[in-house]
Amino acid sequence: MFKKYKSHPWHGVSIGKLYPDVVTAYIEMVPTDTVKYEVDKETGYLSIDRPQKYSNVIPALYGFIPQTYSGKRVAELCNFYLNRKDIVGDGDPVDICVLTEKVITHGDLLVKARPIGGFRLLDGGLADDKLIAVLHNDTIYGAYHSINDVPLLVIERLRHYFTTYKDIPGTNERKTELTHVYDVKVAYEVIQRSIADYQEFYGDYE
Length: 206
Description:
Layout: E1 23-29, E2 35-39, E3 46-51, E4 61-64, H1 72-82, E5 88-89, E6 95-99, E7 109-123, E8 126-127, E9 130-135, H2 152-164, E10 176-183, H3 184-202
Parallel strand pairs: 5-8, 6-9
Antiparallel strand pairs: 1-4, 1-7, 2-3, 4-6, 7-8, 7-9, 7-10
Helix pairs in contact: 1-3
């Protein structure tokens, strides 16, 4: 069946054998996109989620890690660090931003990425972690092994995007909240927990 049909990027693509150090990432969006693209969960095809109404542009490659799921284990980690009990997972694959010096002109592709940290993001009270990674063997970013290696300006651009990309200009209401910036060890734990959440919810596809 896999030889006859295109694999679903969430369920039919392997995370890779070197995780959590190196993971396969499916890229939905690139910095030049003026439309918000998102994988249709039923068909696996890249679809238009919404036009970018305002001048918010993702400053990195953006997508998700296949065969991961933000469920109870990911939520437990978020609750632990925030000293809360009410947060649940958002029910999506874990999102990932991939830094690279290369100009990638379109999404709907797979890349090998090396996680170096992440953002603990709440979206309407749901755990919505954004992992930060570098393109594996990237000429410039490939030398980074910790989120502390990333220039502060790059982190601030990412922080600004994720804390404003759902906001409506002219209102003070914030749709998302970034509570922590964490390093590579926590990113690894998010990955491991999200794999366990996926296997419990969907079964082990591999």
